[in-house]
């Protein structure tokens, strides 16, 4: 598996292929910079200059034999890719730290049977697991439909129908929570 990050920079917009630019032509400048930085990162990770389209679920259209995931926060795009020989799906997510004690966020992300952890960390873990699981046909679900178990920096997300357990790891970068989940 390859994992990389790239600082969001609007200069990457000029390097987009016409097919890639068409996917965000009506977007605001910040969204264009995020998208273009993500594509620059993927071009580097994949070692290709070919356009990278979008699949029906909104994720990048991966080349044959590749699975992966792409995410961004306000300052960085992050991506993980791997071979279909080793992974059925990969999910990655990043979010900046939230406000400590945000009760509304806690109630919208953490279930009563989830561990008592930072709600942004929980959201990032659940989102990374969801991205991997949804690439295998999982329906759109909210964070309260996913149950977490956490041990150190590893987590298991119990996904609803079709039921699956998705394994992952998470880290506090100092400015954000980052999680990656895989389905071997």
Compute the number of helices: 4
User: Per the principal axes of the C-alpha atoms, what is the gross shape?
Assistant: globular
- How many E-type strands? 8
Structure class: alpha+beta
First-last Cα distance? 11 Å
Spatial order of the strands in the main sheet? 4-8-7-6-5
Mean pLDDT: 95
Give a structural overview.
This protein has 184 residues and is an alpha+beta fold. The protein contains four helices and eight strands. It has helices spanning 18-22, 29-46, 103-109, 119-134, and strands at 2-7, 66-72, 76-83, 89-96, 147-151, 154-159, 164-172, 176-183. The strands form two sheets. The protein has a five-stranded antiparallel beta sheet with strand order 4-8-7-6-5, covered by helices on one side. Strands 1-3-2 form a three-stranded antiparallel beta sheet, with helices on one face. The N and C termini lie close together (11 Å). The model has no long low-confidence stretch (mean pLDDT 95).
């Amino acid at each position: 598996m390859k994992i990389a990050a790239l600082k969001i920079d609007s200069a990457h917009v000029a390097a987009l292929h016409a097919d890639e630019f068409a996917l965000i032509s009506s977007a605001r400048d910040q969204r264009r910079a995020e998208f273009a930085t993500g594509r620059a990162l993927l071009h580097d990770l994949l070692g290709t200059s070919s356009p990278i389209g979008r699949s029906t679920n909104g994720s990048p259209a991966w080349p044959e034999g590749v699975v992966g995931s792409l995410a961004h926060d306000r300052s960085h795009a992050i991506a993980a890719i791997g071979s279909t020989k080793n992974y059925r799906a990969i999910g990655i997510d990043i979010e900046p730290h939230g406000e400590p004690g945000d009760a509304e966020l806690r109630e919208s992300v953490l279930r009563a049977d989830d561990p008592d952890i930072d709600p942004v960390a929980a959201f990032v873990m659940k989102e990374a697991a969801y991205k991997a699981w949804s690439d295998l046909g999982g329906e759109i679900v909210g964070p309260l439909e996913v149950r977490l178990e956490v041990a150190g920096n590893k987590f298991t997300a119990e996904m609803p129908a079709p039921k699956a357990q998705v394994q992952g790891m998470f880290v506090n970068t100092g400015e954000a929570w980052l999680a990656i989940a895989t389905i071997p």
